[in-house]
Amino acid sequence: MMNTAASQSPERTIIASIDGCTKRYPGVLALDNASFDVAAGEVRALLGKNGAGKSTLIRMLTGAEVPDTGTVRIGGEELTQSGSARAQEAFSKGVRVVYQELSLVPGMTLAENLFLGRWPRKAGILSYAEMETQAQEAMARLGLDLPPSRLVTGLSPAERQLLEIARVLLGKPRLVILDEPTSSLAAAEAEKVMTAVKRVASEGIAVIYVSHRMNEIRRISQSATVMRDGRIIDTVDVAGADTREIVRLMLGSEAAQAAKLETKTRESVVLEVAQLALAPKLSSISFKLRQGEVLGIAGLLGSGRTELLQAIMGVTSFDRGTVSVDGKPVGRPNYRRMLDAGFGYTPESRKEEGIVPLLGVDENTVSTNFFTVSSYGVLSARRMADATRRVIQRLHVKTAETDTPIGTLSGGNQQKVVIGRWVHANSRILLLDEPTRGVDVEAKAQIYAIIRQLAAEGRSIIFVSSEIEELPLVCDRVVVLREGTLKEEFTSPDIDQDAVMAACIVGH
Amino acid sequence: MSMEQAAKTPASAQRRRGGFTQHMNEISLFVAIAVLYIVFTATAGGFMTFNNQINILRDAATIGIAAWAATLIIISGEIDVSVGPMVAFISVALAYLLQWGVPTPIAFVFAIAIGAALASIAGILRAYFDVPSFVATLGLWSALRGTALFVTDALPVSIGRNDIVDMLDRPVLGVPPAAIIMLALFAVFAFVSRKTAFGRSVFAIGGNPHAAFLSGINVSRIRVALFAIAGAMAAVSGILLLSRLGSGNATAASGLEFDVIAAVVVGGTALSGGRGSMLGTLLGVLVITLIGNGLVLLGINPFFQQVVRGLIIVIAVLANIQAIKRGAARNKG
Q1: Which residues of A fall within a CB distance of 8 Å from B212?
Q2: DSSP string of B43-79?
Q3: Are the Cβ atoms of A374 and B196 closer than 8 angstroms?
């Protein structure tokens, strides 16, 4: 079964291969006896949910990690170095990665960015003419027709992504790894990137393409390797495979049947969003949130989940549509007004936007409402400690003292405080963006319980998650965000993981 | 239960060490001040006299009053370089107000209001138009000094006899009012920074402005308020300057902004924001003032004094950063 699709073509030139690799981190088996290869001119899709081992596999190929057992070969030669020399070794053998986080200097020209740090020189002076000629050529190879002397500022996300790929191509790579290159792009934009990827492969370069958008995968790859729990589950022929089958491979059969949730959803609609549009990600979003309901929003990375929550909260403004609270339209949402109306929002990136690391758990908690812990405008240490203790107890935050700096807590406990500050503010509508991201298993279960408990008290919650398997555990209802609108809807207890995942990744 | 305990032990140990590191800064400043006292008492004649100690307090007031507000601004992740010209400008403006016969108490209120209003221009530029605070206050720095010089032709604006103004320079039980005002304001600022929502919001904004905004803190309004407060404090310094010199003076307080920033930074407040303390700044002000005073008494060439001061400031901050790094490394290990 292994490599069925890949072994079909007879004259494959293997560019990179991994043979029987195992990698164990403390507490996790990140890669379990994995074997994998990719040939010249091939675009291999790599699929798997978070934590399936995709990144570890990539890190093996780039030499960023040394396998505990097994070998990694690039161009037929085994990587032998360890430490940072290993990454250097893989690099010199032609392995290149284009990461999601773009690494361009906006204030420099396209040409300067393409040659960043190794600008062509003549007698010590930068040779702009040569740089720009080469840059023009490199960009033309990808169908990017822009003057090389213009600045990166003002380029569209797709153009930036193409520039990144062009930069990688300048080094004459043999294997190019793309990590969700279209996740931040709208559909039309993604098109350009896919065309470029096809061109890269047609030059005889091996491409590994990490993505979950099945329609993209179907168009550019012949075969897809599916990973789960650190193992290579199968490599399937994309043309012959049904999306449901791929989902089954990704999620496995052990997908636990969720216990029936005790729903406390009431009739009254607390939040209604109608025809909300925000270019380019969201075209028309409509939904209702009832009191006491946990509404899950599923969708792939880059499907516009964060944008939707921020538009509702008034953090960013939207183009069209209405947001109504308790049946009354709010006009243009403004963040502070939404907070006054009883909303609470927890951002996706806890460290960048959620916590003030140097301040205590107490101050991170009461920052949503200083009023209730002050008397005559002066903060009361006792009231602050009491309020914090209440939140700590209710949300099971593990902290030594109420004023321990929050930066020293584990991710799960930080997240509980970030949710807890809205409990302190007594918010009744909570918008939680990926509240379980980067949180350990035990803390996840606690966060699910907290969310159910808050809903049982009559609060309404929007729960955004890219981890499909947690949706049935928390949500009364799940809607799928895809192509700018909400598509399928699932109601507890009929939230079937396979069906939700399929709805997320399915094509047009 | 056992798990909670397990979680508790390392965390509380960490906290104790964290607390020690935090006070490490103040302790080392105390030591530095003690060393300065010992050295200057032994080497500089007239250093340990009552009169000189009073002088030190009065000099400290000039830097200190502005430094309290600057500490909050720097904790919030901003900077204000307009202090010196603001003090001079206010002293000139106040002198004119008094010349025109505005009753003294009302003139004082006007002076403080003018200071707050002018400085809040920089605050508004920062908070609502994203102009970096360094640039906004640099503009103010140049414009205020220029206006004061232009209007007065660089000549002192004398105010004649004024009992209230004179009273501000008359020692109470040997202590100059400026020093009393400085210490009273210190108490207010120390209280505000630790005990009010405003003060804690300043720390939150400096530590992570996104998180502060998302938890509902009015980041823009607090930024404007911070600059307005700094302007008001500079005005208080301006009033005291007028009382000391008996005239408004457009060329006064030259370079004061650098002494203020140096005192705050020597006091352990991070220029990157989010971390700092009023007590640290108080000690920093003392260090800067003592160095200035001692070097004069030692009769060191005034040009060379600047070199020594520069070296001492950089060494103090360097030592502080090293101490914090060592503390952090110990916390990790």
Answers
A1: 356, 367
A2: HSTTTTSHHHHHHHHHHHHHHHHHHHHHHHHHHTT--
A3: yes
For B134, residues 6+ apart whose C-beta sits below 8 A from its C-beta are B79, B81
- DSSP β-ladder status, A269-278 and A231-237: unpaired
A128: phi then psi, degrees, rounded to nearest 5: -65, -35
SS3 B169: coil
Cα–Cα distance measured from residue A170 to residue B67, given in angstroms and rounded to the nearest whole number: 54
Instruction: Give the whole-angstrom CA distance, residue B108 versus residue B102.
Output: 10
- Per CB-CB distance under 8 Å, the chain A contacts of B210 are 347, 352-353
Interface of A with B (CB under 8 A): 315, 335-336, 339, 345, 347, 352-359, 363-364, 367-371, 374, 377-379, 398-401, 404-405, 408-409, 421, 425
Q: Between A and B, how many residue pairs show a Cβ–Cβ distance under 8 A?
A: 89
Residue with tokens 């399928």: A488
Strand partners, A325: A271, A328
Q: Which residue has the tokens 């600059």?
A: B227
pLDDT in tens, B162-186: 888 888 888 888 889 999 999 999 9
Question: What region, left, alpha or beta, does residue A15 occupy, with left being phi > 0 and alpha being psi -120 to 50 degrees?
Answer: alpha
Distance CA A480, CA A147 (A): 40
Given the structure tokens 């507000």, which residue do they identify? B69
Chain B residues whose CB is inside 8 A of the A409 CB are 11
Enter the tokens of residue B297.
């008494």
Interface test with A, best of B17, B208, B214 (most A CBs within 10 A): B214
Contact A408 B14 (CB under 8 A): yes
> What is the rounded distance in angstroms from the CA atom of residue B104 to the CA atom of residue B243?
12
Rg of chain A (C-alpha set): 25
- Token duo for residue A400: 């030594």
pLDDT tens digit sequence for A340-372: 999 999 998 888 899 999 999 999 999 999 999
Q: What is the DSSP string of A308-319?
A: HHHHHHTSS--S
Coil, strand or helix at A276: strand
Q: How many CA atoms lie within 13 A of A478 on its CB side?
A: 28
What tokens were used for A287? Answer: 């939904």
pTM tops 0.90 = no
Nearest to A452 by CA among A422, A472, A427: A472
Closest CA relative to residue A176, chosen from A352, A44, A316: A44
CA-derived radius of gyration, chain B:
21
What ipTM does the predicted assembly reach? 0.79
Q: Which among B12, B195, B216 has CB closest to A336? A: B216
Q: How far is CA B173 from CA A275, A393, B47, B187, in A?
A: 74, 55, 20, 21
Report which of B199, B203, B214 is spatially closest to residue A354, judged by C-alpha positions: B214
pLDDT average, residue stretch B284-310: 91
